[in-house]
Amino acid sequence: MSAAPRTISFVTVVFEPEIALLRLQARSLARFLDEACVAEIVVLDNFVNGMRSGTRRRLLAEFGPALAPRVSIIRTSKLGVHHNTEGWRSQQAAKLLIAKHIDTEHYVILDAKNHLIAPASIRDFVDDTGRALGRTHPYSGHPLRGDLERTLRHLGADDAEVARALQDFPPTATPFVMETSLVLRMIRGVESAAAAPFAIAFERARLLEFFLYAGWSILREHRVPINGAHIPAAIIWPSRATEQGASDAIREVDEASAHWFSVHRRVLVRADAATRQRIIDFWVSRGLMDTAEAGRFVRSFRRAYVPAVARARIAERLSGLGGR
Length: 324
Known about the structure:
alpha/beta; Spore Coat Polysaccharide Biosynthesis Protein SpsA, Chain A; five-stranded mixed sheet; three-stranded mixed sheet; 12 helices; globular
C-alpha cells in the first residue's frame, strides 16, 4: 500500500422496502460527507423490477447538487446476479461484483440503513498509509459463527485456521471499506476454483460477502485487509426496538464519537411511540430533518412498509417463474 488516496467510491444497495431509508442516507451524505473525497456513489438497485423514474428523481434530489452528478444507479441483475438468486444473497454478491466498475483503490460499502450524523472525510475510511479502516472481533459466540466457518472451509481453511479466525476476524457490519483490486483477485479466484460465474459459485456455496473477502485475503494473501482502527457506527437492531435500545444506541454515538448511525427497517415498524420519538428527536438534533418532517417520514414509512414487502415478495416469485 502507498499513501492515502485522495478520493474514494461509495456503494450502497437498496430493495423496495428500504427506499425511504436510502433517501435519508443520501441526505446525510449531502450534509456531512466531504465532497472533495467522493469519486463516485453507486446505488445498487435490487428492486425486483427496477426503480421507477420518479423514485430515481426523488433519490437524486436528496444527494444535492454537489453529489448527484456523481451518482450512478446500477441494477444488480446487470452485474451477473441471476434472477434465481435469493434477494438478500443477490445483494451480497452485487457488493463484490461492483468492483469491476470501480476506478478508485477502495470503495465503501453501505446498507440503506446507514446514515451519517457528523462530518466525515477520506481519513475516516482509509489511513495515511493507504490501508482500509476497520477492526476485528471474536466470533466464538457470534450468531454468524457457522457462516464464518462454512466460508472459511470453502476457502480450504484447516482446523487451526478456523480456530484462529473465531478468536479474531474482520466484521460483517457496514460501513465496510473494500480494497478494489483485492476484490477483483478474489472474484477471479472463486470463479476459477468453481469453474462457474462468481454469482453462481457464491450462491451455490452459500457464502457471505465480508467473510469471503476477508477470508480470501487472510488465507490466500496472508494479510488482514483492514488496519484495526474502528469505524464507529451505532445501530438499533429490531431486537432492541425499545426506548431503552434507542437510548443505548444514541449514547454509544456520544461515547464513541460515531459518525454513523443506523436504524434497521423493522425497528421503525416494531417500535412504540416513545421509541419512535426518541429516534425522531435524534435525527432532528443532527439537522437531518425538522420535527414535523421526521414525524411524517416515520408515519409514511410505517404505512408503506408491509405493502412494499408484500409487493417485493410477489414480484420475486413471479420473476423466478418468468425471468427478471
